[in-house]
């Protein structure tokens, strides 16, 4: 049934918006005058919505403007000449009115270069006063190139630029953005039509006057960025290199990193030994290093990780085949607090490799050769996220290093019960999460569940989640052991099948929250009378199945 939004009073509409619970911003277009008025007047939405303009809606916005009681700070504009998009003249007229009535600071613009040029020229006051701009150039093979145009944005502090494949090779720069106060920029190229274009197409924008830049996210293709990186960037603290073509990877990285001595946060995609060595030579203050996709094969890996006294976060994701070889069999990172080591493949020549991290607090290990990867940590390790699928063999000291861990996330499959042999002592776990997401057949977790419940008497939060389409089964006898966890407050079972119910419900008086969404209970004798088998807590069972 179609809803007549215009017939709803303001209060229900405001209630709807409050329930959206969006994390950042909600992008939407206008629906009707009453809806629009709610958008503009509801205090709960003051900074939470990016408004999209299309079709004949500038007139609708003007109508809502008269009812607005607040400063509207975020605006999204779609430019173009299609029937369902406003002509630029209509947009420009509307923006003139907006600038006079709203305190617009955050603008998002989508369009092809010619329309964008018209918008810039006609709305200098708007773009000269905003502090944040999201700019997206869309695919349009037929647009006519024009000479470089200067656009001054004197107050701009944050820029996000996305360029879809434009259908031309090496088009000259279209816009020179003069941004003296710019602090953060993301320059991203993307293509749904021609993947190879990512390696030779340059951005159509150039940045000038951004001497105070602190953060830069960039695709490094061809030679477009050489002049930019040839200038000292003493304020730059964060650099994210999203993509670099093969011929770019082995260029003179010293010419780039020598101008950024104060980098503290670096992320590189498809990095090599040469890139890592140059980063070590030129950037001595690194606190966070993210390596996504890499090949470290010349033996210098450990010696190139020269930030023992400063590096606090090291995230390495090999994307299933990230190779590491180090002539030095150990690496000491005395300041490291957070380590993520995913799909890192130690080469056959490596043998054992030991990471010494006495201050480590968080550890994530996924898809790694645990037997050859040794870890020496201090008493601060508190949170561990690992996968265990049965065949893996761990280094002798691995489980003994978990004695002080209070939070464990364990990714499991049908063979994960083999970890039980390592659980020979009481753990200090307060929060345990078991996740199944990689199985092609259903299986039971009775032994695994029983072992953890018996060895973790201090558990306060327990989650068992099935992310696969096949059944994850738990016998009622093992489930009943939960009654012995006297401190348990939060219990989450998602898409679990509880089998062989043969007794009364267990009592858990301290339980504050119970989530049993997607669960099935096999209760052939009707012993539970349609209730989840826990007393002491009122469980919502509308999303459960009973058999």
UniProtKB/TrEMBL annotation:
Signal peptide coordinates: none
SMART domains membership: FBOX
Pfam families: F-box
Occurrences of domain F-box (ranges): 8-47
Name of this chain's protein: F-box domain-containing protein
């Amino acid at each position: 049934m179609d809803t007549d939004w215009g017939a709803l009073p303001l209060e229900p509409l405001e209630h709807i918006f409050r329930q959206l619970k969006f994390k950042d911003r909600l992008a939407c277009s206008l629906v009707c005058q009453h809806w629009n008025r709610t958008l503009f007047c509801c205090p709960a939405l003051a900074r939470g919505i990016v408004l999209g303009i299309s079709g004949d809606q500038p007139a609708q916005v003007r109508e809502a403007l008269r009812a607005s009681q607040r400063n509207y700070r975020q605006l999204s504009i779609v430019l173009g000449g299609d029937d369902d998009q406003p002509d630029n003249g209509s947009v420009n007229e509307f923006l003139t009115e907006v600038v006079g009535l709203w305190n617009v600071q955050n603008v998002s613009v989508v369009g092809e270069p010619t329309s964008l040029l018209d918008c810039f020229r006609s709305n200098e006051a708007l773009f000269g006063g905003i502090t944040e701009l999201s700019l997206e150039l869309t695919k349009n093979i037929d647009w006519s190139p024009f000479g470089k145009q200067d656009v001054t944005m004197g107050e701009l502090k944050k820029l996000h630029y996305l360029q879809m494949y434009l259908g031309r090779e090496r088009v000259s720069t279209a816009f020179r953005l003069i941004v003296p106060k710019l602090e953060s920029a993301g320059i991203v190229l993307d293509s749904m039509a021609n993947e190879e274009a990512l390696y030779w197409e340059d951005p159509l924008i150039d940045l000038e006057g951004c001497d105070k830049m602190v953060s830069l996210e960039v695709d490094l293709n061809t030679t477009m960025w050489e002049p930019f990186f040839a200038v000292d960037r003493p304020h730059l603290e964060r650099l994210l290199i999203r993509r670099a073509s093969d011929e770019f990877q082995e260029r003179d990285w010293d010419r780039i990193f020598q101008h950024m001595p104060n980098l503290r946060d670096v992320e590189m995609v498809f990095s090599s030994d040469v890139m890592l060595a140059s980063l070590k030579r030129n950037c001595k203050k690194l606190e966070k290093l993210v390596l996504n996709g890499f090949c470290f094969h010349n033996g210098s890996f450990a010696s190139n990780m020269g930030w023992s006294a400063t590096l606090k976060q090291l995230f390495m994701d090999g994307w299933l085949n990230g190779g590491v070889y180090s002539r030095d069999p150990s690496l000491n990172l005395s300041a490291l607090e957070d380590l993520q080591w995913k799909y890192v493949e130690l080469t056959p020549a490596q043998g054992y490799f030991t990471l010494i991290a006495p201050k480590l607090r968080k550890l994530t290990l996924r898809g790694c050769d645990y037997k050859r990867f040794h870890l020496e940590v201090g008493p601060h390790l508190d949170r561990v996220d690992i996968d265990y699928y049965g065949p893996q063999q761990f280094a002798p000291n691995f489980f003994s290093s978990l004695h002080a861990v209070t939070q464990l996330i364990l990714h499991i499959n049908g063979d994960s019960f083999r970890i039980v042999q390592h659980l020979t002592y009481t753990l200090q776990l307060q929060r345990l999460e078991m996740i199944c997401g990689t199985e092609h057949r259903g299986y039971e977790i009775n032994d695994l569940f029983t072992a953890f419940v018996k060895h973790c008497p201090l558990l306060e939060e327990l989650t068992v989640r099935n992310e696969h389409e096949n059944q994850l089964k738990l016998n009622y006898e093992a489930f009943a052991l939960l009654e012995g966890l006297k401190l348990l407050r939060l219990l989450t079972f998602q898409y679990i099948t509880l089998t062989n119910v043969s007794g009364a419900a267990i009592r858990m008086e301290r339980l504050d929250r119970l989530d049993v969404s997607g669960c099935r209970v096999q209760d052939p004798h009707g012993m539970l009378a349609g209730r989840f088998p826990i007393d002491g807590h009122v469980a919502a069972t509308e999303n459960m199945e009973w058999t």
